[in-house]
Every structure is written in structure tokens, then in C-alpha cells.
Amino acid sequence: MICDYSVIKKSFLLLVGQIADGICTPLIGYESDRTPGCGNYGKRKTWHLVGTLSVVLSFAFIFNQCLGCDSFTPQWASLIYFVPFIVIFQFGWAATQISHLSLIPELVTCQHAKVELTAYRYAFTVIANITVYAVAYLLFHLQAGGDDDPLSDALGPIDIPIFRVALLYMSTRLIVNLSQTYISMYLINTLGLPKKFIATIPLVMYLSGFLSSFIMKPLSKLIGKCLTYFVGLLLIMAFSYWVLLDAKMGQQVYGAAVLLGAGSATILVISLSMTAELIGDQTQSGAFVYGAMSFTDKVANGAAVMIIQALHPCHTVVCCPACVWFYHYVMVIVTGGVAFIAALALCTILIWPIKIRLRNAAVVSEDAARVN
């Protein structure tokens, strides 16, 4: 049913989901920090369970035809049908994500242990995604039939570090999410590669990200988190320049995918560990901080997709000649362009190091922990 919608209607549904997620995340974070939880189950695990049940109950309805709809049902009616399920799903996703992330600063206090736990978390995320893409590859292969086609409640100046880390995290998520969103269109419409590349290229990206997650802890201990993040940005920018200069990329796209996968994994893990270090020992506000970070992420991603879809040169479902170069430059901008913004945010952290806000304190002491 959604496949029959216009580009604007599809992007509207995505924007609704991103806004819902963006609004839910700080609210869930705020409540998760203050609610006692269900019995002895714990407040973080309680919210994780609520989120999981919300996702399970709503997910199937989003990817199936609306109940009672047929070919004569107006699109606006089916559009309204999908909105509440999308909102419930995004609420559940936010509750699961925020409660899980906020466990990290409560489980450990050592900064390097936080990086290690975040890397483990990402590694298992990669394993789950690899399973999905492996199944997708098998389906495409079988479908082809053997075809060998190739804090305190008040905000003030003392909260500026939160905004700087939020800008860094938002830029990171824009790179990771938008590159994953448009990589398939780039492969098929711009490079003209077979459909099997839709499964193999993301698989290579996740594998390279999985392997790079194991070297993040020793690398961050050696050169610090900021420089480790900068190394990830260099990989992203290398991918962007490769795409920009090589318009007829063939099998070389696997090499570019390795750069994008390793760079995306590095900047995502390090940005999350910076957030954990910003929280410090103020774990009672951990979920709210993660929720605030995710708010900027979801709204920015939703708005970015809406803008990109509005600029799409083709007004039909089939890709027109103009969209060949459109997706080429989209991949360049959402990686290299946003990486430049992330580099500016990183510079502000290097010039004015982040100081952890102390509980019930009007000022931050000069010996407060800093992000390396």
C-alpha cells in the first residue's frame, strides 16, 4: 500500500515517525530517570520491556496493507491509518534504545570500560544486521533463479557542552542513517549494479564496522576519543571523495564500502562514548541526556529525508536519467558534507573541552573530568 504513495506522502510518513521518535526520546528519558520501575525488575529494564512490547505490537501493521482497505480506498484515509502505528513503533523504539544505552554509565564507571561496552553493543548490533542482509542476499539470489548478473531541570550556560555533543551526535547519525538509506538507490540507479549488491554492499559495511569495533578501545586509549573520532571522519571523507571522483565505480565499490562501514562504526561508537562520559556519575539523568541527543538525531534525519525527497528530479516511480546524478551527489553530500559539519563540532570540543556538570552545583569545578 505504501509503495503506491507519492514521494511526498512517503517522506511525510517518515517525517511523522522521526518527529514522534524525537519527541518521545527526551520524555521517555525524563520519566525513565524518575520512575522506580516494576517491582524488582529495575527502571531501565522495565522501560526496555515496554518498548519491546510496543514494537512487537505495531511493527507488523506498518508493513502490511491497512485492514479493510482496497483499491478504492483514498490515500489520505490509509495515510491516517498508518500514523498511529508508526507513532507507537517509534515510542517503543525510543524506549528500548534509551533504556539500553542508559545502562552503560550505571554498569561501569571507568571511561575506557564505557567505550568497550559501547563497542560490544555495536558489535552485536552488527551481528543482527548481518543476519538480516544475509537473509536478503539469499532471497535475492533465489529470486534471480541462478542469474549471474553482476541534569538539573533548568538549562543555562553550564549546559553548553550538552549542545556541542548533541551537534556531534546529530551529525554522526545523519552520516550513518542517510548513507544507509540512500546507498541502495546509489548502487542500482547511479552505478547500474545488479540487485544482489543491495545485500552485499551493506553486508561489507557492517562487517568492516564489526571488525573496526575491536580496535576502538586500544586506539582511544592511545590517542584519545576526539582523535579516534577524527580518524573515523577521515575514512568517511575518503569514501566521499572516492564517490565524487569515480562516477563509473564497479567492483571498486566494495573498497569504498569498507571505508564507509569502518568510518561509520568509529564515529558512532565514539560519539556515544562521549555522551556517556558527559553523564559521568550523574546516572540519575542518563536517560534524559540520551533522549535529548536522540531528539536532535530524529528530527534532523526526518527533515533531511523530507528535503532530499522534495528535491528529487523524477516525478514517477521509475528512475529518470536525472536521478542518476541526483543519488550520486546525495551520497557525496550526506557523507562528506555532513562530515565537515561534524568536524566543526569536534573542533569546538577540542578547543573548549567538555566539563561534566555536577549535581546541584551552580558552577563546574576546574578539575572536572574532560573528554580526551
TrEMBL record:
<feature type="transmembrane region" description="Helical">
    <location>
        <begin position="119"/>
        <end position="140"/>
    </location>
</feature>
<keyword id="KW-1133">Transmembrane helix</keyword>
<dbReference type="GO" id="GO:0048021">
    <property type="term" value="P:regulation of melanin biosynthetic process"/>
</dbReference>
<dbReference type="GO" id="GO:0005886">
    <property type="term" value="C:plasma membrane"/>
</dbReference>
<feature type="transmembrane region" description="Helical">
    <location>
        <begin position="256"/>
        <end position="276"/>
    </location>
</feature>
<feature type="transmembrane region" description="Helical">
    <location>
        <begin position="76"/>
        <end position="98"/>
    </location>
</feature>
<keyword id="KW-0812">Transmembrane</keyword>
<feature type="transmembrane region" description="Helical">
    <location>
        <begin position="326"/>
        <end position="352"/>
    </location>
</feature>
<feature type="transmembrane region" description="Helical">
    <location>
        <begin position="222"/>
        <end position="244"/>
    </location>
</feature>
<feature type="transmembrane region" description="Helical">
    <location>
        <begin position="46"/>
        <end position="64"/>
    </location>
</feature>
<feature type="transmembrane region" description="Helical">
    <location>
        <begin position="197"/>
        <end position="216"/>
    </location>
</feature>
<keyword id="KW-0472">Membrane</keyword>
<feature type="transmembrane region" description="Helical">
    <location>
        <begin position="160"/>
        <end position="176"/>
    </location>
</feature>
<comment type="similarity">
    <text>Belongs to the major facilitator superfamily.</text>
</comment>
<protein>
    <submittedName>
        <fullName>Major facilitator superfamily domain-containing protein 12</fullName>
    </submittedName>
</protein>
<dbReference type="GO" id="GO:0008643">
    <property type="term" value="P:carbohydrate transport"/>
</dbReference>
<dbReference type="GO" id="GO:0043474">
    <property type="term" value="P:pigment metabolic process involved in pigmentation"/>
</dbReference>
<dbReference type="InterPro" id="IPR039672">
    <property type="entry name" value="MFS_2"/>
</dbReference>
<dbReference type="GO" id="GO:0015293">
    <property type="term" value="F:symporter activity"/>
</dbReference>
<dbReference type="Pfam" id="PF13347">
    <property type="entry name" value="MFS_2"/>
</dbReference>
<dbReference type="InterPro" id="IPR036259">
    <property type="entry name" value="MFS_trans_sf"/>
</dbReference>
